[in-house]
Amino acid sequence: MSVTFWEKIKIPGKKLFIFGIILLALIFLFTPVAMVQFFCLFFIFIIASSKLYSEYLTRKIKVTRMDSELRVFRHEWVRVELKIENHGLLPAFMLVASDMPGDLAVIRMTKTFCTLFKHTWTYLRWEGLCAERGVFRIGPAVIKGADPLGLFPFHLTAGETTKLYVYPSVRSVNLKNIKGTPLGNIISTNPLFEDITRYRSLRPYYHGDERRRINWKASAHLSAGTQSCGLLVNEYDAAASFPVMIFLNVNGAQYPKRNRRTILERTIEAAAALCLKASRERQTLGIIIYTSCNEEGISVISPAAFTLIPILERLCALEWSTNAPHRDSHNCMMTIINYGRQLSYGTRYLYVGPDLGDEAYITLNLLKKHHLSPEYLVIDEKTLLAAVPGGSPRYQIKESGYEII
Is the pTM of this model over 0.85? Predict the structure, then answer.
């Protein structure tokens, strides 16, 4: 991401230039002594040359950010790198380059002191510790310099920044398989495992394919459009493909006031751990983020391929709310049911959040009519490691440590 202009240009020597030129011009005009006139012209030349030199450097020094976006997990180090270039023919002496870290906690911030000759460059590198989850802006870069005599110093502020995504901390989570359902897809190339009710895509016909797999309608459209006689064959998803949908409850009003922030962050870490595990298992993944019962308080990413990065970005930018009614577990329960009814057969439905109460769990058993068996990851010190009424498993989220459950 190249900086082609500077957002701010400050040259403190502007007044010196104006008044110096005027004063020396008056002395030159009204003093008949040749030696004094010579020195006046000499100093006028020095001041004007220094001014032009400084202005020239402000237009020829460029900064290139090596990364327009950076992604890192919480409690990890991020490395930021910038390239400082002198595109001009004149050398830039004693430049001081630094970068603004924004809200990022920086441990190893350094400034670069350098001299750039014509068409040369140098790098500014620094490291920061990402102590908090969130989306941050790094920059802008600041360059300080002057002409060789130091008469006209300049202060340049680059107009572009780097966007930093700090994902939740990496944690470990292990869930037992329920009724043989894995947390992930069983990859198989055997067409015997394909489910003909779950259409995936089309591919060209190969010798040996069954005639009943040929899509005659699509083949006819292809032949009409390209004047060829190619055949297309239907492909289906594997029968052992089990998508995951995570329901993340971050309604702050349902959490205890004591250590609320710490517990909520731990819940978000649990959801991120499930996402990472599902991704490692090559599983289609989705998430429902619940902050309140209003439409603005519910964010949904449907199960699909390549959703891990969008989900992690949504989690790192997540801001929980306490505006909803206290202990509003009924609205949360109804939201779980309403979205659960829309899920496809075989989806593994995982709830992550505070304890909902036995009555809510009994009501959530209605999802079994839709061939769903919800599982619950609960962060509540009073919750026991036991199944909820109706047989659905319930796990206790540890409030600290590398392992989630």
Answer: no
